[in-house]
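Support request, please re-run this one:
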Amino acid sequence: MSAVTDTVRVAPAANPVSQSIRDSMVVAKRNLIRMSRIPEMIIYGLIQPIMFVVLFTYVFGGSMQIGSSTSAVDYKNFLMAGIFAQTVTFATASSGAGIADDMHKGLIDRFRSLPMARGAVLTGRTLADSVQTALTLVVLAVVALLVGWRVGSNGDTNLGKVLAAFGLLLLLGYAFTWIGALIGMSVRTPEAATSSGLIWLFPVTFISNAFVDTSHMTPWLRHIAEWNPFSATVQACRVLFANPGRSQSDAWPMQHPVWASLIYSILILVVFRTLAVRKYRSATA
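Re-run finished. Output below.
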């Protein structure tokens, strides 16, 4: 009598990286479908940056000094890099509110009970928010062109540099959505996530070179503005768009704005993604 050995076929474990990418794409698709079914989310997300463009252009244009010029046209071309950067960073608040809402409804707990990559839920959410941010940037660029913004208004540029500037903006926005993800995981309600997501964004965006020439600031405030990661991306965009108002400071981020923007964004992304995923593993609704 021959011995019979039962063998159990075990499916080979999926590659963790490919599983994480696949799960992230599934969650991102779920969030994009949800956004498409709530179009007012996209519409109201567009109204605020368009209001900033119109108000800053027609209310402050002509009263702001950029270098030695008080021309409204110069301020218009100076302003747009700041408005673009402000728009991608303000998307942080909606990311935090969305994740807090998912936590409040128990959706995060249901995702956590599934056999999926731990970081996929937050990665999918932030990727979907980045798609919405990219759409907002396209609409905002069209509005900017309509009010008179022009690339190459203060030097030479080309399509590659313009696309690189928008790439830096999207990278900054994606890095900041991870700050929003961490905030969303740390508060109890979407309302708290929205409020706490905006409180710190105002000083970050206004103590910078986004809306005014930093050479007119007091020395201590100018020093903060010039080392602000937000200012590095704005300066990089002005360089790549060839727009006026580039800071002449000796501060390293102002001298090498493209590299500074890349380094700042990647550092923010790595640090806050790590903290947010760690919080996801331990958080309860």
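The mean pLDDT is 85. The first helix runs from residue 16 to 37.
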